Protein: Coenzyme A biosynthesis bifunctional protein CoaBC
Organism: Nesterenkonia massiliensis
Amino acid sequence: ATSGPLAGHTVVVTAGGTREPLDPVRYLGNRSSGKQGVALALEAAAAGAQVHLIAGVMDIQAPVEQSNLSVERIETADQLQAAVLTAAEDADVLLMAAAVADFKPADYAAAKIKKTDDGASPVITLQRNPDILADTVQRRAQQHRGPKVIVGFAAETGDASTDPLELAQQKLARKGCELLVLNKVGENLVFGQDTTEIYILAADHVQQKLGETQAEHVAGSKQEAAAAVVARAAQ
Ligand code: C5P
């Protein structure tokens, strides 16, 4: 598509989960299916953008590459960081839908970790991964270049005493991005499903510009949610 609200713009989308290796046969992973991220990439392409999809581990196949949609596969958070760093330089919009592992095993065992005769259980020490979203926002501020619109995603379960919207509002401010997409997640909610329920929150300065104060609520297919996010980012 060469027409549409995002014609002439470059959009980078991250999707799926990262996989953090523990030894040659084991890893730490998460339940991200990649469906929301792929839906975002397809919606952005349909809106006329030049799209680069950076995809981690997904339950679904990556979309077929087209003239305005390229796909890059990564596995670890460190690989994702390197890929985003490069791609974001020339991007107008970054949609950070990937479920990035917050921690990775501190030491990679070059040989498979074995059971020992004494019955001892191994202890796995974890180490923080970079916050790619926050780092990209920071780098943009320092270098005065990078995506004009950075969109973060937050999967929150909430609990009896905390409102997920409140958590999302705090996360939006902490990360410094323009938009934050909240979805309420649970074991049988959102992950791997074709439907979702999201709230699109805008940073204060963006809200003022758009003249709106309410978070936009969308319940429906992940494709419908993606369309709403892409439309908001284009605005
Ligand atoms: O802090 P939290 O993990 O809830 O933030 C979610 C958002 O931050 C998502 O957009 C996710 O892609 C991004 N993220 C990241 N690097 C991490 C963790 C999360 O870019 N290490």
